[in-house]
Amino acid sequence: MAEPSTLVIAVDGPAASGKGTIARGLGQHFGLPHLDTGKLYRAVALSLLRWGGDPESEFAALRACDEVSGLLDDPELKSETVGGIASRISAYPAVRSALLERQRDFAAQPGGAVLDGRDIGTVIAPGARAKLFVTASPEERARRRFAELTSSGLPVHLDDVLIDIRARDERDSHRSAAPLVQAEGAMLLDTSAMTAAEALAEAIRLVESTFPSQDL
Ligand SMILES: Nc1ncnc2c1ncn2[C@@H]1O[C@H](COP(=O)(O)OP(=O)(O)OP(=O)(O)O)[C@@H](O)[C@H]1O
Ligand SMILES: Nc1ccn([C@@H]2O[C@H](COP(=O)(O)O)[C@@H](O)[C@H]2O)c(=O)n1
Fold first, then answer.
1. How high is the ipTM of this complex?
2. Domain Cytidylate kinase: where (predicted)?
């Protein structure tokens, strides 16, 4: 199989499904730059939080988009508070439009790129060569998020994490602007019963299945 010269890989899926781990691994495997697009929405949320803007105001959230670049490496991006606000402000069409060009430019790099998020295969890079929709049961995703948060020393309860995961799924899947759906042509990867290494190996296999066969 010949590896295509331009390889854009779109990885979408719900919260804590493991899409970021897979997308990062695909980037390393295929030598492609990777963008976690959730960070952009989290940065808008963090900017809003620090400035004291109202997450209920689309106008305030749009203003917060100006501050994204300086916040992308901030450790507070990972907090559940920021993630919750991100899932609210990401429903605003004005916020999605403000972040669109940056993501499309990343996807258009020579050679290709890997992007993960909620609307990569539907809106950002609908022409991507390989599209994956990564999922896992809400209970398994809650366990993974719980383990991640507790290992960072954050005191959380598993039940609360599950409630949060379900609320996030509901908001991300039912908003009118770029809802989370399996894109046309996206290959489903359910990682519920897989280790992270098994999930990456399967993702690599699925991406390689889209390569053109080389004539011998
Ligand atoms: N197959 C797996 N089995 C167990 N744990 C996993 C697996 N895949 C990822 N994880 C762990 O689950 C947590 C969430 O994974 P990851 O950050 O990749 O998910 P995500 O879908 O990108 O999350 P989000 O975008 O909502 O932040 C991480 O701690 C990661 O190490
Ligand atoms: N392409 C994307 C990426 C993310 N979002 C929203 O941001 C929230 C945080 O994302 P994480 O992947 O870091 O959990 C998420 O809940 C989505 O609402 C988005 O809309 N589109």
1. 0.98
2. 9-208
Collapsing DSSP to helix, strand or coil, 186 comes out as coil
Rounded to the nearest 10°, the torsion over CA 164, 166, 167, 172 is 120
Indicate the residue type of 109: Q
Give, as one character, the DSSP assignment of residue 78: G
First to last CA, the chain: 10
Q: What superfamily in CATH does domain 7-208 come from? A: P-loop containing nucleotide triphosphate hydrolases (3.40.50.300)
Q: What local confidence, expressed as pLDDT, does residue 5 receive? A: 81
How many whole angstroms from 86 Cα to the centroid of ligand 1? 18
SS3 126: coil
Whole-structure pTM value: 0.96
**What is the whole-number distance in angstroms between the Cα of residue 101 and the centre of ligand 1?**
27
Binding residues for ATP: 13-21
State whether residue 70 is helix, strand or coil.
helix
- Cβ 163 under 6 angstroms from ligand 1: no
